[in-house]
Amino acid sequence: MSNADSAIKEPTQQLQDAIEQTFMTWKRLFRSKMKDEDWMLDTAEVWAIALTDLRITGKELNLAQRKSMALEWPPTAPADFLALARTQQASPYPIANDAFVTACSNCGMKGDVERKWKHEVVYETANRIGFGVLASATDFFLKTFTATYKQVCAEHASGTSFVIPKSHRLAHSHEPVQAGSEADKKINERLAGLRRLAV
User: Fold this and answer.
1) For residues 112 and 169, is the Cβ–Cβ distance under 8 A?
2) Taking a C-beta distance cutoff of 8 angstroms, is the pair 74, 33 a contact?
3) Whole-angstrom Cα distance, residue 79 to residue 162?
4) For residues 23 and 43, is the Cβ–Cβ distance under 8 A?
5) Buried/exposed 69-98: b ≥16 CB within 10 Å, e otherwise
6) Alpha carbon distances (Å) from 149 to 107, 132, 141, 143, 169
7) CB burial string 10-30: b at 16+ within 10 A, e below
8) In angstroms, how far apart are the furthest CA atoms of the chain?
9) pLDDT digit string, tens, across residues 9-66
10) Tell me: the pLDDT tens digits for 98-142?
């Protein structure tokens, strides 16, 4: 046995049990966003090995579990899960899962409506992938979206700027007609004419 082999630490049963419990909690919380076959015991074993290699602490595990319950989608990789606890300062970008949901819902909107992109990198990612593609995307497209999203975030972090276009829609304003005004007189004259025709 070499020194490199002896340095590899095996995950504890306690960690694997905690990961299995986390998966069960996510299944109840995220329901159809999680496929049963993706979160089996062998997945928990792989996660436990990866988190052990990443040197997760009990405190980080508890914090990551807690933060994961506030997400729209469960983390899809052990490193993403651990990042929930290790993030020293909040990222200026939405997490990939939230960005995916935002992009898909915005791309599915029809007409000239106001879309809330959350951040310009979400809009740029949607623009690169294509609005039509994201409008009909399923959960299985998240991996493809995430790859493009990470590239766009890296470009933005290195100084590239992206712009969300302003809506071309005119703002609606309603001003009631004042009694006795010229407009009120014209409206009353037309209504009187229509009443005469109706009789």
Assistant:
1) yes
2) yes
3) 28
4) yes
5) eebebbbeebebbbbbbeeeeeeebbbbbb
6) 15, 17, 12, 10, 28
7) ebeeebbebbbebbeebbeeb
8) 105
9) 888 889 988 988 888 888 888 887 777 776 777 888 899 999 999 889 888 899 888 8
10) 899 999 998 888 777 778 888 999 999 999 999 899 999 888 899
In angstroms, how far is CA 94 from the centroid of its own chain? 7
Per-residue confidence (pLDDT) for residue 36, from 0 to 100: 72
Structure tokens given for 46: 């792989």
Burial group, residue 134, by CB count within 10 angstroms (0-12, 13-18, 19+): buried
Q: Which residue has the higher pLDDT, 146 or 172?
A: 146
The token pair that represents 190 in the structure block: 């037309």
Residues 6+ apart with CB under 8 A from 149: 96, 99, 100, 121, 122, 125
Q: How confident is the model over 183-197, as pLDDT tens digits?
A: 888 888 888 888 887
pTM tops 0.90, yes or no: no
Burial 46-57 (b: 16+ CB within 10 A, else e): ebbbbbbeeebe
Return the pLDDT at 178.
84
Class of residue 112 by CB neighbours under 10 A (exposed 0-12, middle 13-18, buried 19+): exposed
